[in-house]
Amino acid sequence: MCGICFIASFQGSSENIQKEKNEIICDLLQQRGPDQCGEKLLNISDQVVALCYGCVLWLQGSKLTPQPVQDINGNVLLWNGDILDGHQIPVGQSDTSFISDQLINKDKSEICKFLGEIYGPWSIIYYQKHTNRLYFGRDVLGRHSLVWKLPVSIKEKESDVLSSEKTSDIFMVSSLCERNRDVEEVPALGLFYIDFTSITIDEFEIHLIPWSHLEEETFKELSYVSVNKDEKLTSRITRSLNMKLPEEDTLEFLKQLPNSLDGSNCNVFYEILRDDIDIVLKTLTNAVKRRVAACPPRCRQCTSSISSCNHSRIAVLFSGGLDSGMIALLLDQCLPPGEPVDLLNVAFPQKIQTLTQKKQKGRKKPENKDNLQEDENSKTGLLVNYEVPDRISGRHCWHQIQDLCKERSWNFVEIDVTSCELSEKRISVIQHLIAPLGSVLDDSIGCALWFAGRGKGECNGLPYESPARVLLCGMGADEQLGGYSRHRVKFGTGGWPALLDEIQMEVSRIHTRNLGRDNRILSHHGRAPRFPFLDEDVVSTLNQIPIWRKTILSLPRGVGEKVLLRTAAAHLGLTTAAGLPKRAIQFGSRIAKMENSKEKGNDACQRL
Protein backbone atom coordinates (compact mmCIF):
# COMPACT_ATOMS: atom_id res chain seq x y z
CA MET A 1 0.00 0.00 0.00
CA CYS A 2 1.28 3.45 -0.85
CA GLY A 3 0.39 7.06 -0.22
CA ILE A 4 0.47 9.20 -3.35
CA CYS A 5 -0.06 12.90 -3.90
CA PHE A 6 0.17 15.52 -6.67
CA ILE A 7 -0.09 19.22 -5.77
CA ALA A 8 -0.03 21.99 -8.40
CA SER A 9 0.18 25.73 -7.78
CA PHE A 10 -0.81 28.24 -10.46
CA GLN A 11 1.30 31.03 -8.96
CA GLY A 12 4.57 29.52 -10.17
CA SER A 13 5.88 29.11 -6.62
CA SER A 14 6.75 26.00 -4.69
CA GLU A 15 6.17 27.62 -1.29
CA ASN A 16 2.40 27.12 -1.38
CA ILE A 17 2.91 23.52 -2.42
CA GLN A 18 5.26 22.68 0.43
CA LYS A 19 2.95 24.37 2.90
CA GLU A 20 0.00 22.36 1.62
CA LYS A 21 1.98 19.13 1.79
CA ASN A 22 3.38 19.68 5.26
CA GLU A 23 0.09 20.85 6.77
CA ILE A 24 -2.45 18.43 5.42
CA ILE A 25 -1.02 15.22 4.01
CA CYS A 26 2.60 14.52 4.96
CA ASP A 27 2.17 12.46 8.15
CA LEU A 28 -0.93 10.68 6.90
CA LEU A 29 0.78 9.54 3.71
CA GLN A 30 3.83 8.33 5.60
CA GLN A 31 1.64 6.05 7.71
CA ARG A 32 0.34 4.39 4.53
CA GLY A 33 3.83 3.94 3.14
CA PRO A 34 6.31 3.58 6.02
CA ASP A 35 9.14 1.95 4.02
CA GLN A 36 10.17 4.93 1.84
CA CYS A 37 9.09 8.49 1.01
CA GLY A 38 10.24 10.71 -1.85
CA GLU A 39 9.23 13.77 -3.84
CA LYS A 40 9.82 15.36 -7.23
CA LEU A 41 9.29 19.04 -8.11
CA LEU A 42 8.04 19.69 -11.65
CA ASN A 43 8.15 23.00 -13.48
CA ILE A 44 5.20 22.32 -15.73
CA SER A 45 4.96 25.82 -17.22
CA ASP A 46 5.76 29.45 -16.44
CA GLN A 47 2.62 29.60 -14.31
CA VAL A 48 2.39 26.08 -12.92
CA VAL A 49 4.69 24.33 -10.47
CA ALA A 50 3.80 20.87 -9.16
CA LEU A 51 5.03 18.44 -6.54
CA CYS A 52 4.79 14.65 -6.81
CA TYR A 53 5.04 12.98 -3.41
CA GLY A 54 4.94 9.27 -2.69
CA CYS A 55 5.32 6.98 0.32
CA VAL A 56 5.79 3.26 -0.25
CA LEU A 57 4.80 0.08 1.58
CA TRP A 58 6.90 -2.69 0.02
CA LEU A 59 4.59 -5.42 -1.25
CA GLN A 60 5.86 -6.58 -4.65
CA GLY A 61 9.20 -7.28 -6.26
CA SER A 62 12.48 -8.55 -4.87
CA LYS A 63 13.27 -5.07 -3.59
CA LEU A 64 11.47 -1.84 -2.86
CA THR A 65 10.83 0.60 -5.76
CA PRO A 66 11.06 4.21 -4.52
CA GLN A 67 8.36 6.66 -5.58
CA PRO A 68 7.82 8.90 -7.44
CA VAL A 69 9.26 7.01 -10.44
CA GLN A 70 10.63 9.17 -13.26
CA ASP A 71 11.52 7.48 -16.56
CA ILE A 72 14.11 8.53 -19.17
CA ASN A 73 11.50 10.67 -20.98
CA GLY A 74 10.67 12.67 -17.86
CA ASN A 75 7.29 11.02 -17.22
CA VAL A 76 6.47 10.67 -13.51
CA LEU A 77 4.43 7.85 -11.98
CA LEU A 78 2.75 7.62 -8.58
CA TRP A 79 1.12 4.21 -8.14
CA ASN A 80 -1.00 2.89 -5.30
CA GLY A 81 -2.22 -0.48 -6.43
CA ASP A 82 -1.71 -4.18 -6.97
CA ILE A 83 -1.40 -5.86 -10.35
CA LEU A 84 -2.60 -9.28 -9.26
CA ASP A 85 -3.16 -10.57 -12.79
CA GLY A 86 -3.86 -9.39 -16.33
CA HIS A 87 -0.24 -8.43 -17.09
CA GLN A 88 2.79 -10.69 -16.82
CA ILE A 89 5.32 -8.96 -14.56
CA PRO A 90 8.89 -10.29 -14.82
CA VAL A 91 10.04 -12.24 -11.77
CA GLY A 92 11.56 -9.95 -9.16
CA GLN A 93 10.21 -6.72 -10.67
CA SER A 94 7.67 -4.61 -8.80
CA ASP A 95 4.39 -3.63 -10.42
CA THR A 96 5.35 0.05 -9.99
CA SER A 97 8.51 -0.17 -12.09
CA PHE A 98 6.69 -2.45 -14.56
CA ILE A 99 3.95 0.14 -15.10
CA SER A 100 6.49 2.93 -15.54
CA ASP A 101 8.26 0.89 -18.23
CA GLN A 102 5.00 0.00 -19.98
CA LEU A 103 3.54 3.50 -20.10
CA ILE A 104 6.67 5.27 -21.30
CA ASN A 105 5.60 5.57 -24.97
CA LYS A 106 1.85 4.96 -24.76
CA ASP A 107 -0.80 7.36 -26.00
CA LYS A 108 -4.10 8.04 -24.28
CA SER A 109 -6.01 5.07 -25.71
CA GLU A 110 -3.11 2.71 -24.97
CA ILE A 111 -2.94 3.91 -21.37
CA CYS A 112 -6.67 3.19 -21.02
CA LYS A 113 -6.28 -0.27 -22.51
CA PHE A 114 -3.38 -1.08 -20.19
CA LEU A 115 -5.25 0.02 -17.04
CA GLY A 116 -8.44 -1.77 -18.08
CA GLU A 117 -6.60 -5.09 -18.32
CA ILE A 118 -5.40 -5.01 -14.71
CA TYR A 119 -6.78 -7.47 -12.18
CA GLY A 120 -6.56 -5.81 -8.79
CA PRO A 121 -7.30 -2.55 -6.98
CA TRP A 122 -5.50 0.63 -7.92
CA SER A 123 -5.31 4.38 -7.93
CA ILE A 124 -2.85 6.17 -10.19
CA ILE A 125 -1.35 9.60 -10.78
CA TYR A 126 0.72 9.85 -13.95
CA TYR A 127 2.31 12.96 -15.47
CA GLN A 128 3.19 12.53 -19.15
CA LYS A 129 5.79 15.12 -20.05
CA HIS A 130 5.58 15.30 -23.85
CA THR A 131 1.79 15.86 -23.81
CA ASN A 132 1.93 17.93 -20.60
CA ARG A 133 -0.99 15.94 -19.25
CA LEU A 134 -1.78 14.63 -15.81
CA TYR A 135 -3.74 11.34 -15.72
CA PHE A 136 -5.37 10.12 -12.52
CA GLY A 137 -8.16 7.81 -11.40
CA ARG A 138 -9.30 4.71 -9.50
CA ASP A 139 -10.14 1.16 -10.46
CA VAL A 140 -13.63 0.23 -11.65
CA LEU A 141 -14.83 -0.75 -8.15
CA GLY A 142 -13.16 2.14 -6.31
CA ARG A 143 -11.25 -0.16 -3.99
CA HIS A 144 -8.43 2.32 -3.34
CA SER A 145 -8.81 5.83 -2.03
CA LEU A 146 -8.21 9.01 -4.04
CA VAL A 147 -9.42 12.51 -3.15
CA TRP A 148 -9.06 15.85 -4.88
CA LYS A 149 -9.00 19.49 -3.94
CA LEU A 150 -10.18 21.62 -6.84
CA PRO A 151 -9.23 25.24 -7.55
CA VAL A 152 -11.75 27.75 -6.29
CA SER A 153 -12.53 28.80 -9.87
CA ILE A 154 -14.22 25.45 -10.54
CA LYS A 155 -16.35 25.64 -7.41
CA GLU A 156 -17.35 29.21 -8.24
CA LYS A 157 -18.53 28.13 -11.68
CA GLU A 158 -20.39 25.18 -10.21
CA SER A 159 -22.26 27.25 -7.61
CA ASP A 160 -22.42 30.54 -9.56
CA VAL A 161 -21.15 32.24 -6.44
CA LEU A 162 -18.12 34.52 -6.67
CA SER A 163 -16.14 35.67 -3.67
CA SER A 164 -13.14 37.95 -3.64
CA GLU A 165 -12.02 36.23 -0.45
CA LYS A 166 -11.51 32.92 -2.27
CA THR A 167 -7.92 32.94 -3.42
CA SER A 168 -6.93 29.27 -3.52
CA ASP A 169 -4.83 28.44 -6.58
CA ILE A 170 -4.10 24.86 -5.51
CA PHE A 171 -5.10 21.71 -7.34
CA MET A 172 -4.43 18.48 -5.44
CA VAL A 173 -4.98 14.77 -5.99
CA SER A 174 -4.03 12.58 -3.04
CA SER A 175 -4.70 9.26 -1.34
CA LEU A 176 -6.14 11.26 1.55
CA CYS A 177 -6.27 14.67 3.21
CA GLU A 178 -6.93 16.10 6.65
CA ARG A 179 -10.49 16.93 7.69
CA ASN A 180 -11.74 20.52 7.39
CA ARG A 181 -10.20 20.90 3.96
CA ASP A 182 -12.21 21.50 0.81
CA VAL A 183 -11.70 18.01 -0.59
CA GLU A 184 -13.95 15.38 -2.17
CA GLU A 185 -13.46 11.78 -3.21
CA VAL A 186 -12.44 11.32 -6.83
CA PRO A 187 -15.37 9.39 -8.35
CA ALA A 188 -14.44 5.91 -9.59
CA LEU A 189 -15.87 6.70 -13.03
CA GLY A 190 -12.83 6.21 -15.22
CA LEU A 191 -9.54 7.92 -16.03
CA PHE A 192 -9.43 11.68 -15.53
CA TYR A 193 -6.86 13.92 -17.17
CA ILE A 194 -5.84 17.57 -17.21
CA ASP A 195 -4.02 19.20 -20.13
CA PHE A 196 -1.59 21.73 -18.69
CA THR A 197 -0.58 23.05 -22.13
CA SER A 198 -3.25 25.74 -22.23
CA ILE A 199 -4.87 25.54 -18.83
CA THR A 200 -5.03 28.49 -16.39
CA ILE A 201 -6.51 28.94 -12.95
CA ASP A 202 -9.48 30.75 -14.50
CA GLU A 203 -9.97 28.23 -17.32
CA PHE A 204 -9.46 24.96 -15.49
CA GLU A 205 -10.94 21.95 -17.25
CA ILE A 206 -10.96 18.30 -16.23
CA HIS A 207 -11.55 15.59 -18.82
CA LEU A 208 -12.87 12.08 -18.17
CA ILE A 209 -12.54 8.86 -20.15
CA PRO A 210 -15.34 6.81 -18.54
CA TRP A 211 -15.71 3.12 -17.86
CA SER A 212 -17.63 1.60 -20.75
CA HIS A 213 -20.56 0.26 -18.68
CA LEU A 214 -21.56 3.64 -17.21
CA GLU A 215 -24.64 5.49 -18.46
CA GLU A 216 -24.63 9.21 -19.29
CA GLU A 217 -26.82 10.16 -16.32
CA THR A 218 -23.97 9.01 -14.05
CA PHE A 219 -22.01 12.16 -14.93
CA LYS A 220 -24.75 14.77 -14.47
CA GLU A 221 -23.46 15.97 -11.11
CA LEU A 222 -19.94 16.49 -12.52
CA SER A 223 -20.81 19.67 -14.35
CA TYR A 224 -17.20 20.82 -14.29
CA VAL A 225 -15.90 17.65 -15.99
CA SER A 226 -15.81 17.21 -19.76
CA VAL A 227 -16.77 13.58 -20.51
CA ASN A 228 -15.12 12.04 -23.57
CA LYS A 229 -17.92 10.05 -25.21
CA ASP A 230 -15.74 8.66 -28.00
CA GLU A 231 -13.21 6.85 -25.80
CA LYS A 232 -13.94 4.28 -23.07
CA LEU A 233 -12.19 2.13 -20.50
CA THR A 234 -13.23 -1.51 -20.50
CA SER A 235 -12.81 -3.45 -17.26
CA ARG A 236 -12.14 -7.17 -16.81
CA ILE A 237 -15.44 -7.60 -14.97
CA THR A 238 -18.45 -9.17 -16.69
CA ARG A 239 -20.77 -6.42 -15.61
CA SER A 240 -24.24 -7.60 -16.65
CA LEU A 241 -26.12 -9.34 -13.85
CA ASN A 242 -28.10 -12.47 -14.69
CA MET A 243 -31.65 -11.07 -14.53
CA LYS A 244 -33.44 -14.36 -15.19
CA LEU A 245 -36.39 -15.00 -12.87
CA PRO A 246 -37.20 -18.45 -11.46
CA GLU A 247 -39.90 -20.32 -13.35
CA GLU A 248 -42.99 -21.85 -11.75
CA ASP A 249 -41.54 -25.33 -11.32
CA THR A 250 -38.44 -23.81 -9.70
CA LEU A 251 -40.60 -21.81 -7.29
CA GLU A 252 -42.47 -24.93 -6.29
CA PHE A 253 -39.20 -26.77 -5.76
CA LEU A 254 -37.82 -24.00 -3.54
CA LYS A 255 -40.85 -24.34 -1.27
CA GLN A 256 -39.78 -27.90 -0.47
CA LEU A 257 -36.33 -26.97 0.86
CA PRO A 258 -35.43 -27.44 4.57
CA ASN A 259 -35.51 -24.47 6.92
CA SER A 260 -32.00 -25.03 8.25
CA LEU A 261 -28.52 -26.15 7.23
CA ASP A 262 -28.19 -28.47 10.22
CA GLY A 263 -27.12 -32.08 9.85
CA SER A 264 -28.26 -33.84 6.69
CA ASN A 265 -30.03 -30.69 5.48
CA CYS A 266 -26.63 -29.37 4.42
CA ASN A 267 -26.31 -32.29 2.02
CA VAL A 268 -29.70 -31.45 0.49
CA PHE A 269 -28.59 -27.90 -0.31
CA TYR A 270 -25.16 -29.00 -1.45
CA GLU A 271 -26.52 -31.50 -3.98
CA ILE A 272 -28.73 -28.79 -5.44
CA LEU A 273 -26.05 -26.06 -5.54
CA ARG A 274 -22.97 -28.25 -6.04
CA ASP A 275 -21.99 -26.99 -9.51
CA ASP A 276 -22.14 -23.32 -8.58
CA ILE A 277 -20.48 -23.93 -5.21
CA ASP A 278 -17.54 -25.68 -6.87
CA ILE A 279 -17.07 -22.82 -9.32
CA VAL A 280 -17.37 -20.12 -6.66
CA LEU A 281 -15.00 -21.88 -4.25
CA LYS A 282 -12.39 -22.31 -6.98
CA THR A 283 -12.71 -18.67 -8.06
CA LEU A 284 -12.70 -17.33 -4.50
CA THR A 285 -9.70 -19.46 -3.53
CA ASN A 286 -7.80 -18.11 -6.55
CA ALA A 287 -8.76 -14.59 -5.47
CA VAL A 288 -7.31 -15.17 -2.01
CA LYS A 289 -4.22 -16.76 -3.53
CA ARG A 290 -3.64 -13.73 -5.78
CA ARG A 291 -3.76 -11.44 -2.78
CA VAL A 292 -1.14 -13.29 -0.77
CA ALA A 293 1.14 -14.68 -3.49
CA ALA A 294 2.82 -11.34 -4.19
CA CYS A 295 3.41 -10.51 -0.51
CA PRO A 296 7.12 -10.32 0.41
CA PRO A 297 8.51 -13.30 2.37
CA ARG A 298 8.99 -11.22 5.52
CA CYS A 299 6.58 -9.46 7.86
CA ARG A 300 6.70 -5.73 8.58
CA GLN A 301 9.08 -6.01 11.51
CA CYS A 302 11.54 -8.12 9.49
CA THR A 303 11.76 -5.85 6.43
CA SER A 304 15.50 -5.30 6.70
CA SER A 305 16.29 -8.76 8.04
CA ILE A 306 18.33 -11.10 5.89
CA SER A 307 17.26 -14.15 7.88
CA SER A 308 14.03 -16.06 7.37
CA CYS A 309 10.86 -14.73 8.99
CA ASN A 310 8.56 -16.96 11.04
CA HIS A 311 5.97 -14.29 11.86
CA SER A 312 2.54 -13.66 10.38
CA ARG A 313 2.65 -11.90 7.03
CA ILE A 314 -1.12 -12.18 6.53
CA ALA A 315 -4.00 -11.20 8.81
CA VAL A 316 -7.77 -11.50 8.45
CA LEU A 317 -10.30 -8.96 9.67
CA PHE A 318 -12.17 -11.56 11.68
CA SER A 319 -15.62 -11.39 13.28
CA GLY A 320 -16.19 -15.13 13.05
CA GLY A 321 -19.05 -14.52 10.67
CA LEU A 322 -19.65 -16.19 7.33
CA ASP A 323 -17.54 -13.93 5.11
CA SER A 324 -14.43 -13.64 7.28
CA GLY A 325 -14.65 -17.28 8.30
CA MET A 326 -14.67 -18.43 4.68
CA ILE A 327 -11.72 -16.22 3.79
CA ALA A 328 -9.69 -17.61 6.71
CA LEU A 329 -10.58 -21.19 5.80
CA LEU A 330 -9.65 -20.76 2.13
CA LEU A 331 -6.47 -18.92 3.10
CA ASP A 332 -5.18 -22.16 4.59
CA GLN A 333 -4.89 -23.56 1.04
CA CYS A 334 -2.94 -20.54 -0.19
CA LEU A 335 -0.03 -20.28 2.26
CA PRO A 336 2.96 -22.55 2.93
CA PRO A 337 2.28 -25.19 5.61
CA GLY A 338 2.99 -23.97 9.12
CA GLU A 339 3.00 -20.24 8.34
CA PRO A 340 1.02 -18.46 11.09
CA VAL A 341 -2.02 -16.28 10.39
CA ASP A 342 -3.44 -13.49 12.58
CA LEU A 343 -7.21 -13.27 13.10
CA LEU A 344 -8.00 -9.71 14.23
CA ASN A 345 -11.12 -9.43 16.39
CA VAL A 346 -12.23 -6.06 17.81
CA ALA A 347 -14.59 -5.31 20.71
CA PHE A 348 -15.78 -2.19 22.50
CA PRO A 349 -16.95 -2.06 26.17
CA GLN A 350 -20.50 -2.91 27.18
CA LYS A 351 -22.48 -3.37 30.42
CA ILE A 352 -20.46 -0.90 32.46
CA GLN A 353 -20.75 -1.27 36.22
CA THR A 354 -18.98 0.39 39.12
CA LEU A 355 -16.97 -1.64 41.58
CA THR A 356 -19.33 -0.52 44.34
CA GLN A 357 -22.36 -1.77 42.42
CA LYS A 358 -20.59 -5.03 41.78
CA LYS A 359 -19.85 -5.59 45.46
CA GLN A 360 -23.37 -4.63 46.49
CA LYS A 361 -24.77 -7.37 44.26
CA GLY A 362 -22.52 -9.86 46.08
CA ARG A 363 -20.83 -11.14 42.96
CA LYS A 364 -17.20 -11.90 42.51
CA LYS A 365 -15.22 -10.64 39.55
CA PRO A 366 -15.06 -13.53 37.06
CA GLU A 367 -11.70 -15.11 36.54
CA ASN A 368 -12.34 -15.27 32.80
CA LYS A 369 -10.48 -12.29 31.40
CA ASP A 370 -12.99 -12.12 28.53
CA ASN A 371 -15.72 -11.04 30.92
CA LEU A 372 -15.66 -8.07 33.26
CA GLN A 373 -12.40 -6.14 33.45
CA GLU A 374 -11.22 -2.90 34.94
CA ASP A 375 -10.98 -0.09 32.41
CA GLU A 376 -7.28 0.85 32.63
CA ASN A 377 -7.94 4.40 31.39
CA SER A 378 -10.74 5.05 33.85
CA LYS A 379 -10.30 6.88 37.15
CA THR A 380 -13.76 5.87 38.38
CA GLY A 381 -13.16 2.18 38.93
CA LEU A 382 -15.40 1.08 36.07
CA LEU A 383 -15.78 -2.52 35.06
CA VAL A 384 -16.31 -3.22 31.38
CA ASN A 385 -17.39 -6.30 29.48
CA TYR A 386 -15.86 -7.18 26.11
CA GLU A 387 -17.96 -10.30 25.48
CA VAL A 388 -19.64 -8.68 22.49
CA PRO A 389 -21.31 -10.75 19.73
CA ASP A 390 -18.30 -10.62 17.40
CA ARG A 391 -15.97 -11.76 20.19
CA ILE A 392 -18.18 -14.74 20.96
CA SER A 393 -18.69 -15.76 17.33
CA GLY A 394 -15.05 -15.06 16.56
CA ARG A 395 -13.83 -17.36 19.30
CA HIS A 396 -16.19 -20.17 18.25
CA CYS A 397 -15.21 -19.90 14.59
CA TRP A 398 -11.52 -19.75 15.53
CA HIS A 399 -11.81 -23.03 17.45
CA GLN A 400 -13.51 -24.68 14.49
CA ILE A 401 -10.85 -23.45 12.04
CA GLN A 402 -8.18 -24.79 14.37
CA ASP A 403 -9.84 -28.21 14.26
CA LEU A 404 -10.18 -28.11 10.45
CA CYS A 405 -6.66 -26.77 9.77
CA LYS A 406 -4.46 -28.32 12.45
CA GLU A 407 -1.10 -27.74 10.73
CA ARG A 408 -1.25 -23.96 11.06
CA SER A 409 -0.97 -21.55 14.00
CA TRP A 410 -4.06 -19.32 14.06
CA ASN A 411 -3.40 -16.31 16.29
CA PHE A 412 -6.74 -15.06 17.63
CA VAL A 413 -5.97 -11.43 18.51
CA GLU A 414 -8.44 -9.96 20.99
CA ILE A 415 -8.49 -6.19 20.48
CA ASP A 416 -10.27 -4.51 23.41
CA VAL A 417 -10.79 -0.77 22.93
CA THR A 418 -11.33 1.47 25.94
CA SER A 419 -13.68 4.45 25.71
CA CYS A 420 -10.82 6.83 26.51
CA GLU A 421 -8.60 5.54 23.71
CA LEU A 422 -11.53 5.62 21.30
CA SER A 423 -12.14 9.32 22.01
CA GLU A 424 -8.45 10.16 21.77
CA LYS A 425 -7.76 8.36 18.49
CA ARG A 426 -10.97 9.59 16.87
CA ILE A 427 -9.87 13.20 17.31
CA SER A 428 -6.15 12.81 16.62
CA VAL A 429 -6.26 10.38 13.69
CA ILE A 430 -9.46 8.65 12.68
CA GLN A 431 -11.51 11.72 11.79
CA HIS A 432 -8.95 12.66 9.15
CA LEU A 433 -9.04 9.21 7.60
CA ILE A 434 -12.84 9.19 7.47
CA ALA A 435 -12.81 12.58 5.72
CA PRO A 436 -14.33 13.76 3.48
CA LEU A 437 -17.18 11.56 4.78
CA GLY A 438 -18.74 12.38 8.13
CA SER A 439 -21.94 10.52 9.04
CA VAL A 440 -22.64 8.64 12.28
CA LEU A 441 -22.29 5.41 10.31
CA ASP A 442 -18.93 6.51 8.89
CA ASP A 443 -17.75 7.23 12.43
CA SER A 444 -18.86 3.88 13.88
CA ILE A 445 -17.50 1.74 11.05
CA GLY A 446 -14.37 3.85 10.64
CA CYS A 447 -13.41 3.64 14.32
CA ALA A 448 -14.09 -0.11 14.49
CA LEU A 449 -12.00 -0.75 11.36
CA TRP A 450 -9.13 1.46 12.54
CA PHE A 451 -8.66 -0.39 15.84
CA ALA A 452 -9.19 -3.78 14.20
CA GLY A 453 -6.68 -2.96 11.47
CA ARG A 454 -4.11 -1.79 14.00
CA GLY A 455 -4.04 -5.34 15.30
CA LYS A 456 -2.91 -4.39 18.81
CA GLY A 457 -4.36 -6.48 21.60
CA GLU A 458 -3.82 -9.82 23.30
CA CYS A 459 -3.10 -13.26 21.90
CA ASN A 460 -3.21 -16.24 24.25
CA GLY A 461 -3.33 -13.87 27.19
CA LEU A 462 -0.16 -11.96 26.22
CA PRO A 463 0.24 -8.48 24.65
CA TYR A 464 0.48 -8.79 20.88
CA GLU A 465 0.59 -6.53 17.83
CA SER A 466 0.20 -8.08 14.40
CA PRO A 467 3.26 -7.72 12.10
CA ALA A 468 1.21 -8.64 9.01
CA ARG A 469 1.70 -6.75 5.73
CA VAL A 470 -1.60 -7.80 4.13
CA LEU A 471 -5.06 -7.68 5.71
CA LEU A 472 -7.79 -9.75 4.05
CA CYS A 473 -11.32 -8.37 4.45
CA GLY A 474 -14.79 -9.74 3.66
CA MET A 475 -16.39 -6.62 2.19
CA GLY A 476 -18.44 -7.05 -0.96
CA ALA A 477 -20.17 -10.37 -0.32
CA ASP A 478 -23.50 -8.99 0.93
CA GLU A 479 -24.10 -6.71 -2.05
CA GLN A 480 -23.67 -9.57 -4.49
CA LEU A 481 -25.35 -12.37 -2.56
CA GLY A 482 -28.35 -10.64 -1.04
CA GLY A 483 -27.02 -10.50 2.50
CA TYR A 484 -28.54 -7.24 3.76
CA SER A 485 -31.85 -6.89 5.58
CA ARG A 486 -33.02 -4.47 2.90
CA HIS A 487 -32.83 -7.31 0.39
CA ARG A 488 -35.27 -9.31 2.52
CA VAL A 489 -37.56 -6.27 2.74
CA LYS A 490 -37.53 -5.88 -1.04
CA PHE A 491 -38.26 -9.56 -1.52
CA GLY A 492 -41.11 -9.40 0.98
CA THR A 493 -42.79 -6.50 -0.79
CA GLY A 494 -42.02 -7.20 -4.44
CA GLY A 495 -40.85 -10.79 -4.74
CA TRP A 496 -38.06 -11.98 -7.02
CA PRO A 497 -38.31 -9.06 -9.53
CA ALA A 498 -37.85 -6.48 -6.76
CA LEU A 499 -34.97 -8.43 -5.24
CA LEU A 500 -33.21 -8.68 -8.61
CA ASP A 501 -33.60 -4.95 -9.21
CA GLU A 502 -32.17 -4.21 -5.77
CA ILE A 503 -29.14 -6.46 -6.22
CA GLN A 504 -28.54 -5.07 -9.71
CA MET A 505 -28.47 -1.59 -8.17
CA GLU A 506 -26.20 -2.80 -5.35
CA VAL A 507 -23.66 -4.32 -7.73
CA SER A 508 -23.71 -1.37 -10.13
CA ARG A 509 -23.04 1.14 -7.36
CA ILE A 510 -20.28 -0.69 -5.47
CA HIS A 511 -17.85 1.91 -6.85
CA THR A 512 -19.83 4.67 -5.10
CA ARG A 513 -19.91 2.99 -1.70
CA ASN A 514 -17.36 3.33 1.09
CA LEU A 515 -14.38 1.30 -0.09
CA GLY A 516 -12.31 4.48 -0.35
CA ARG A 517 -13.03 5.21 3.31
CA ASP A 518 -12.19 1.65 4.34
CA ASN A 519 -8.94 1.83 2.35
CA ARG A 520 -7.91 5.07 4.07
CA ILE A 521 -8.73 3.67 7.50
CA LEU A 522 -7.07 0.26 7.19
CA SER A 523 -4.00 1.43 5.26
CA HIS A 524 -3.04 3.84 8.02
CA HIS A 525 -1.30 1.02 9.87
CA GLY A 526 1.12 0.28 7.06
CA ARG A 527 -0.62 -2.83 5.79
CA ALA A 528 -2.54 -3.44 2.60
CA PRO A 529 -6.27 -4.21 2.90
CA ARG A 530 -7.42 -6.61 0.16
CA PHE A 531 -10.95 -7.74 -0.66
CA PRO A 532 -11.23 -11.24 -2.21
CA PHE A 533 -15.01 -10.98 -2.70
CA LEU A 534 -14.35 -7.97 -4.96
CA ASP A 535 -11.88 -9.79 -7.18
CA GLU A 536 -12.73 -9.27 -10.85
CA ASP A 537 -13.28 -12.99 -11.47
CA VAL A 538 -15.37 -13.43 -8.32
CA VAL A 539 -17.66 -10.53 -9.26
CA SER A 540 -17.99 -11.85 -12.83
CA THR A 541 -18.74 -15.39 -11.62
CA LEU A 542 -21.37 -14.29 -9.11
CA ASN A 543 -22.97 -12.00 -11.70
CA GLN A 544 -23.62 -14.97 -13.97
CA ILE A 545 -25.29 -17.25 -11.38
CA PRO A 546 -29.13 -17.13 -11.28
CA ILE A 547 -30.46 -15.22 -8.31
CA TRP A 548 -32.32 -18.17 -6.70
CA ARG A 549 -29.06 -20.13 -6.54
CA LYS A 550 -27.36 -17.32 -4.60
CA THR A 551 -30.02 -16.28 -2.13
CA ILE A 552 -33.44 -17.77 -1.20
CA LEU A 553 -35.16 -15.22 1.01
CA SER A 554 -38.26 -17.34 1.51
CA LEU A 555 -36.06 -19.32 3.91
CA PRO A 556 -35.39 -18.10 7.48
CA ARG A 557 -32.77 -15.52 8.39
CA GLY A 558 -29.36 -17.11 8.77
CA VAL A 559 -30.21 -19.67 6.10
CA GLY A 560 -31.70 -18.09 2.98
CA GLU A 561 -29.57 -14.99 2.53
CA LYS A 562 -26.27 -15.87 0.85
CA VAL A 563 -27.41 -19.51 0.81
CA LEU A 564 -24.77 -20.39 -1.78
CA LEU A 565 -21.93 -19.27 0.49
CA ARG A 566 -23.57 -20.68 3.63
CA THR A 567 -23.91 -24.10 2.04
CA ALA A 568 -20.30 -24.00 0.88
CA ALA A 569 -19.12 -23.11 4.40
CA ALA A 570 -21.20 -25.84 6.04
CA HIS A 571 -20.03 -28.41 3.49
CA LEU A 572 -16.39 -27.55 4.27
CA GLY A 573 -17.04 -28.01 8.00
CA LEU A 574 -17.40 -24.36 8.99
CA THR A 575 -20.82 -24.97 10.50
CA THR A 576 -20.57 -22.25 13.17
CA ALA A 577 -20.20 -19.39 10.70
CA ALA A 578 -22.58 -20.94 8.16
CA GLY A 579 -25.63 -20.36 10.36
CA LEU A 580 -24.87 -16.86 11.67
CA PRO A 581 -27.14 -14.05 10.43
CA LYS A 582 -25.57 -10.92 8.94
CA ARG A 583 -24.20 -8.62 11.64
CA ALA A 584 -22.47 -5.37 10.66
CA ILE A 585 -19.21 -4.56 12.43
CA GLN A 586 -20.66 -1.54 14.26
CA PHE A 587 -23.22 -3.82 15.92
CA GLY A 588 -21.14 -6.95 16.33
CA SER A 589 -18.30 -5.03 17.99
CA ARG A 590 -20.84 -2.98 20.02
CA ILE A 591 -19.34 0.41 19.12
CA ALA A 592 -22.78 1.55 18.00
CA LYS A 593 -24.05 1.10 21.58
CA MET A 594 -21.48 3.47 23.04
CA GLU A 595 -22.83 6.76 21.75
CA ASN A 596 -26.15 8.63 21.53
CA SER A 597 -28.84 5.99 21.02
CA LYS A 598 -31.09 8.53 19.27
CA GLU A 599 -28.60 9.07 16.45
CA LYS A 600 -29.35 7.74 13.00
CA GLY A 601 -26.67 6.33 10.73
CA ASN A 602 -27.12 9.01 8.07
CA ASP A 603 -26.96 11.91 10.55
CA ALA A 604 -23.88 14.14 10.50
CA CYS A 605 -21.62 12.93 13.30
CA GLN A 606 -20.93 15.66 15.85
CA ARG A 607 -17.88 13.79 17.19
CA LEU A 608 -15.91 14.25 13.97
Automatic annotation (TrEMBL):
Asparagine synthetase domain segment(s): 496-571
GO biological-process terms attached to the record: asparagine biosynthetic process
Keyword Amino-acid biosynthesis: yes
Keyword Disulfide bond: no
Pfam family, one: Asn_synthase
Domain of life: Eukaryota
Protein name: Asparagine synthetase domain-containing protein
Organism of derivation: Meganyctiphanes norvegica
Source organism phylogeny: Eukaryota, Metazoa, Ecdysozoa, Arthropoda, Crustacea
